[in-house]
């Protein structure tokens, strides 16, 4: 059985930006003010409330440049926030849209063709589990179905083997 966990943007990536670092295109993040609608922070996986400042920047959630290393705009609270910790629970920010693209990637960080599907939010965990049960899929991205923006990553956690009871 494959157990899944929802993973936010790594804190090290957020810290770099909060400390004046540059984005995936070597630009400084832009500061904007949230209108309260559709500005999800990729670190805490919560919506950025109306009137709050946030950073907009190019993000590449892959370890290296390569043809499948998609880069796109995402949001981050301008003030430090806690990284999403309830990894076994689907993040609240995913309730802001009726559906998302759910797509599998291999160990080589390339898209596994045929895995991408626009998926209703209620079906995301089940579809991710199905994908992650495959040996050719290392992790899954949840992306905007309308703009393809990275939302979060889903990883597999192999369930511990049951201890032998001797019975």
TrEMBL record:
Q: Which Pfam family, an example, fits this chain?
A: DUF1203
Known InterPro entries for this protein?
DUF1203
- Entry protein name: DUF1203 domain-containing protein
């Amino acid at each position: 059985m494959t157990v899944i966990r929802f993973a936010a943007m790594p804190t090290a990536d957020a810290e770099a930006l909060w400390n004046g670092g540059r984005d995936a295109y070597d630009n400084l993040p832009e500061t904007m003010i949230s209108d309260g609608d559709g500005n999800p922070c990729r670190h805490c996986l919560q919506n950025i409330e109306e009137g709050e400042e946030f950073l907009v920047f190019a993000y590449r959630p892959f370890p290296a440049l390569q043809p499948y290393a998609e880069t796109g705009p995402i949001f981050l609270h301008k003030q430090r926030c806690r990284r999403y910790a309830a990894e076994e629970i689907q993040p609240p920010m995913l309730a802001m849209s009726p559906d998302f693209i759910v797509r599998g990637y291999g160990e080589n960080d390339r898209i596994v063709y045929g895995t991408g599907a626009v998926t209703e939010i209620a079906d995301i965990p089940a579809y991710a589990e199905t994908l992650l049960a495959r040996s050719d899929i290392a992790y899954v991205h949840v992306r905007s179905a309308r703009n393809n923006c990275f939302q979060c990553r889903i990883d597999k956690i192999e369930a511990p083997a049951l201890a032998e009871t001797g019975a």
